[in-house]
Specification:
By secondary structure, this protein is an alpha/beta fold. The chain has 3 domains: 183 residues, Immunoglobulins (Immunoglobulin-like, Sandwich); 92 residues, Immunoglobulins (Immunoglobulin-like), CATH 2.60.40; 247 residues, 3-Layer(aba) Sandwich (Rossmann fold), CATH 3.40.50.11530. Helix content is 30%, strand content 23%. Strands 1, 3, 4, 7 and 8 form a 5-stranded mixed beta sheet that branches. A hairpin with a 7-residue loop joins strand 16 and strand 17. The protein is elongated, with a radius of gyration of 39 Å.
């Protein structure tokens, strides 16, 4: 008996759940019905669209064109004349407003249908909906009015029913709109009666495919192949229906740009084309773009690095009679040297040391001390050679500098970056080497990202850098004139000043919290003074180039310079040995020219 009573008490709840599940699977579309049927509450008028003719018939005037069948107070004007009470109740805003794309034959426009669910709150007094579409940044407006007849009173289970609007056709591709669904009636003091959503129509590529859109098309497949000292680039051509007949390529690297117009011969190959890039510098990283020669064409970006070419030496094949005595003499000399070394003792031997990722912060010292220590430790020291086969990814080093000291100083910084990247197993980042990313992100945004992502940051300090960081009140017109008018440089110089200030804040924060400061370094060339190092960087290791090259290398790779019985010795990375390399000789010449230029400007200022 009690079980039967319990079942009958739960029966209405079960019926409500069944009704909700059935309503959730249904979608209600607008109907064609007359305004008289809606006002009288006849059958077949449950959910009706209101047209411009209905507005003219009911109100005596035609609605404004863009607003379609919408009027300011549709419930009062169309349903509340005989019984105003039905338009005075509060109704909550709809839920789950969604925009769906429907099939549209025109390839340049989209058609959408808006769907939503009514709210539980006030659903028994719901009289309809008003759906408006507004173009963002424009004046285009479309509106639809959808009404129930006057005798409809929806139960709470119908809150799961999905109601839909009529299609909104002719929306241009790639445009943004705001759709607003308003629940009727709308009392004057009620605010939560509508729900808005922002959406974008599809792009041409999303609707029609990339091969059908001239504006959105770009080469998707780019292959780079090095042949000797030239680079061959192969890319896919645009479909013939787009009418694209010419392309262009732009490569930027090491402060230079290389532009090339490309006109393929479609009679030879209609799908792919190859072109060559010549006169590129070996060992330089290039960032390249290729695109159709059209206005606002989408560009495909790819990278090129021209690796060094090993030139074959002329081979000579001597006769066996000449080669045999020479081999015997070499063997005898080797035997004598081996015996001498074995008698000399185990004081000198070579051991390989693997680079570990942990960072160190060596204390800066005077150049004479390093030279004397190195020469004195040659006999009893231990030569340490760095392996190449087991190295992990090279550390990333960002170099900050000031362009206020003139083009010779900038050239010296670029040559320093090239030497470090080629001979110190380090990836160097300079703003002039990545001008495309700098132009795309903005100079300061690029510096902020690199400061966050790089392993090390080296600030090349100079007179122009220290003056740029000085307070504006401490400068006068004579100093600006002495700087050659560089005070008006609002580009890289100001960005470098901002980056140095940001680095100073990071250094101060890390020092206050007891963190490691080895990520940050300062350096000066021989034509600069230690006073050119700004106060913000006095807490970080600072080096004098080029005599402190071994210190800089040990900092980047966490290798100790000296230890009991051993010292760090790396070929061509020393105060004198670096100039034996082509990149080192170019760096030495660039530093000398920068010093001459700064000295000439100093005498001129006097």
């Amino acid at each position: 008996m009690w079980a039967l009573l319990w079942f009958w008490s739960l029966l209405p709840l079960v019926q409500l759940v069944w009704a909700g599940d059935g309503a959730a699977a249904s979608a209600v579309f607008p109907q064609e019905c007359s305004l008289d049927c809606i006002q009288q509450g006849g059958p077949g008028c449950e959910y009706c669209r209101i047209t411009k003719e209905d507005i003219k018939e009911a109100l005596g005037f035609r609605a404004i064109g863009p607003f379609g069948s919408c009027v300011p107070w549709p419930c009062f004007d169309l349903l509340g004349k005989e019984d105003p009470k039905i338009c005075q109740h509060y109704v909550q805003a709809p839920n789950d407003v969604k925009v769906e794309f429907v099939h549209e034959l025109n390839p340049e426009t989209d058609t959408v249908v808006v769907s939503w669910r009514p709210s539980y709150y006030g659903i028994a007094f719901l009289r309809g909906f008003q759906v408006s579409l507004q173009a963002l940044g424009g004046s285009a407006t479309a509106c639809q009015l959808l009404l129930f007849h006057r005798n409809v009173s929806l139960p709470a289970s119908h809150a799961q029913t999905v109601y839909k609007s009529d299609p909104f056709p002719g929306l241009p591709l790639g445009s943004q709109y705001a759709v607003t669904v308003m629940a009727l009636p709308v009392p004057e003091e009620w605010e939560r009666f509508y729900r808005s959503e922002i959406f974008s129509t599809r792009s041409c590529a999303e609707k029609n495919g990339l091969e059908q859109c001239k504006r959105d098309w770009y080469p998707q497949h780019v292959e780079v192949r090095q042949e000797g000292t030239s680079i061959t680039v192969t890319f896919n051509l645009a479909p013939p229906n787009l009418g694209i007949t010419s392309y262009f390529s732009l490569c930027v690297g090491s402060g230079s740009k290389k532009y090339m117009d490309i006109t393929p011969n479609s009679s030879k190959n209609k799908t792919h084309h190859s072109y060559q890039l010549c006169d590129l510098q070996e060992g330089t990283n290039y960032t390249c773009e290729i695109a159709a020669n059209e206005i606002d064409a989408v560009r495909k970006t790819f990278n090129i690095q021209l690796v060094h070419i090993q030139r074959d030496q002329p081979s000579v094949t001597p006769s066996l009679t000449l080669l045999l005595p020479l081999c015997l003499a070499v063997a005898a000399i080797f035997t004598v040297l081996l015996a001498a070394l074995s008698r000399w003792g185990p004081g000198m031997h070579v051991r390989k040391l693997f680079i570990k990722p942990a960072l160190i912060s060596p204390s800066p010292a005077q150049c004479d001390f390093h030279q004397g220590q190195e020469s004195g430790a040659t006999l009893n020291g231990e030569a340490v050679a760095l392996p190449r086969g087991n190295m992990t990814a090279p550390p990333r080093l960002l170099i900050c500098y000031s362009s206020r000291d003139g083009p010779a100083h900038v050239k010296a910084v670029m040559q320093l970056g090239a030497f470090i990247q080629q001979h110190m197993a380090t990836q160097v980042l300079l703003d002039v080497w990545d001008s495309l990313s700098v132009a795309r992100e903005g100079v300061m945004s690029w510096y902020c990202r690199q400061i966050r992502e790089c392993d090390f940051i080296l600030v090349v300090c100079s007179r122009g850098l220290s003056r740029g960081l000085a307070p504006p009140a401490g400068r006068d017109e004579e100093e600006d004139e002495d700087a050659g008018g560089r005070g008006r440089d609002f580009g890289p110089s100001l960005a470098c000043n901002g980056a140095v200030r940001l680095i100073g804040e990071e250094v101060g924060r890390a020092k206050a919290r007891g963190r490691d400061l080895s990520k940050y370094m300062a350096a000066i060339f021989e034509h600069s003074e230690e006073g050119d190092i700004p106060a913000e960087l006095r807490l970080v290791p600072h080096y004098q180039l080029m005599c402190d090259l071994p210190l800089l290398f040990s900092h980047l790779h966490a290798v100790a310079l000296h230890r009991p019985g051993g010292y760090l010795k790396i070929n061509h990375i020393s105060d004198e040995g670096f100039a034996q390399l082509p990149a080192g000789a170019a760096l030495q010449l660039a530093v000398y020219e920068a010093g001459v230029e700064l000295s000439a400007k100093g005498h001129g200022g006097d």
